[in-house]
User: What shape does this take?
Amino acid sequence: MGRDPNIWSDPEMFMPERFLDVKIDYKGQDFELIPFGAGRRMCPGLNLANRMLHIILGSLIHKFDWKVVGNKRPQDIDMGEKFGITLQKVEPLMAIPMKL
Ligand code: HEM
Assistant: This one.
């Protein structure tokens, strides 16, 4: 459902801003978006993850400039995925933090 074109426009496109104008609950109530699963076996780490992710990501962006290994432009990064229990990139992202 997370990639259903009947629900999401251009679902394969990385477009985080698509979530700004929607009132979809990500805590297992609206099945269009269930990053933490739903029901009795849903992720018990949801609240911890929700609190920590903003702090971690914000700190990494605030404190460092980032360069992709091989001086690749962001648009040239291979976003291919490989099949597995969890979704992984075919080519791992190697980014170098540079202190500001
Ligand atoms: C962005 C962060 C995270 C995401 C996207 C995520 C996602 C998920 C998903 C999709 C499941 C499977 C739910 C299901 O079967 O319906 C799961 C299960 C689980 N997660 Fe997370 N998780 C995250 C962070 C965490 C953290 C921080 C913890 C612990 C500190 C955690 C602990 C667990 C455990 C123990 C299960 C197994 C629950 C069970 O099978 O009953 N997760 N998670």
The chain has a mean pLDDT of 92.
